[in-house]
Amino acid sequence: MSDQAAASDADQPPSQFTGYAGSAPGGCQTCGQPQASRAETPAVGADSAGWGGFVYAVGRLTPQFPSVGVEKEFAQLTDGPALGALVELDRLRQVIEDPENRYLGRHLCWVFTTQGIDTFAVLPRDDSDVARLIELITPRESDDVVHAVVGRPPGVIDSPCGSLGLPAVVADQLLSFTIAEFSQHLMGTSDAPGDAEPATEDHSDGEQAEAVIREVFLRLTRRADNRGLADEHRALNYVALRYPAVYHTAIAAYRENKTLVGIDARHQHAVGRRLVSVRLTFRQRRTDLLERYHCLVDVTDLFPFLASPLTLVYD
Fold it and tell me: What is the 3-state secondary structure (H, E, C) of the chain?
């Protein structure tokens, strides 16, 4: 979807996201809450567009058999026939939830897909990582599930996914939630900038607010080239997961008869830090006047953070 594409009907709410089904334990209560990190800061100026930097990706995680040998081992554990390269997820969960079988999880290829493309493989470091990956497994027909990975390249390590030609990532944080859960969580927050207000309890207003949240989340995270590797994309994904003010501003703009016509991210000059400016552009439907808001995200370390809040700008 183009960043500059306006809503198809100026008098209608944003297009409905298809929704995400399947739930994670605790819903979205932990969305974006960082775990303790390790050696967070790389050399400033590292190539964040490649694998020398950090990863903050939004997409879908799926386990695959990297070899016939691993597939046969799974078949022996289930007393059943081999199932091909793609794993039958319900059976896999049942097998690896047994602590005695956790070793198999370290030999699977945990493929992370963004924009429908296999982007990298998540490497579990130990049995606790395997257990967390198993928690994220959802049936393939549950097309609504959102997964997020915050991590880094593992350095020199033997990956079972070498035959697939995918880069490897060690995950410091793994998230799973649905857009419905995410929207309900956001509609209960109130840290909106300026005069922007969180959604009210009115039923129709709440439905429109949820539609806006889904549209903004889609446009932030599902840009055609967003793999969660480049600084700009890590900033967009961070804002999508961790900054409710962006959604409250969009909801308030919709109530004021404005349309979100653009979201862009670009590097901002800074000494010793890597900053990205994330800007939202709205257009007044009746007058065509443009209104822009922007915030700064610091993406120097493993976990990005807000360097300056969302504010109205005049340029």
Answer: CCCCCCCCCCCCCCCCCCCCCCCCCCCCCCCCCCCCCCCCCCCCCCCCCCCCCCEEEEEEEEEECCCHHHHHHHHHHHCCCCCCCECCHHHHHHHHCCHHHHHHHCCCEEEEEECCEEEEEECCCCHHHHHHHHHHCCCCCCCCCEEEEEEECCCCCCCCCHHHCCCEEEEEEEEEECHHHHHHHHCCCCCCCCCCCCCCCCHHHHHHHHHHHHHHHHHHHCCCCCCCCCHHHHHHHHHHHHCHHHHHHHHHHHHCCEEEEEEEEEEECCCCCCEEEEEEEEEECCCCCEEEEEEEEECCCCCCEEEEEEEEECC
pTM (2 d.p.)? 0.76
Residue owning tokens 């493989």: 121
Boundaries of every domain in the chain: 55-177, 179-313
CA separation for the pair 167, 162 (Å, rounded): 8
Q: Which of 203, 237, 25, 56 is closest to 131 using CA atoms?
A: 25
Q: What is the pLDDT of residues 14-48, one digit of tens each?
A: 333 222 222 333 333 333 333 333 333 333 333 33
Q: Encoding tokens for residue 198? A: 């969180």
Per-residue pLDDT tens for 155-174? 656 667 766 778 889 999 99
Burial environment of residue 28 by CB neighbours within 10 A (0 to 12, 13 to 18, 19 or more): buried
Q: What are phi and psi of 12, to 5 degrees?
A: -110, 155
| Residue 170 burial (CB count, 10 A) | 18
Q: Look-up: residue for tokens 């605790």? A: 26
Q: Phi and psi for 256 in degrees, rounded to 5?
A: -95, 20
CB-based burial of residue 25 (10 Å sphere; 0-12 exposed, 13-18 middle, 19+ buried)? exposed
Distances (CA, A) of 198 to 32, 89, 242: 20, 38, 15
Query: Alpha carbon 171 to chain centroid distance?
Result: 13
Instruction: Tell me the pLDDT tens digit for each residue of 184-213.
Output: 888 876 554 544 444 445 556 778 899 999
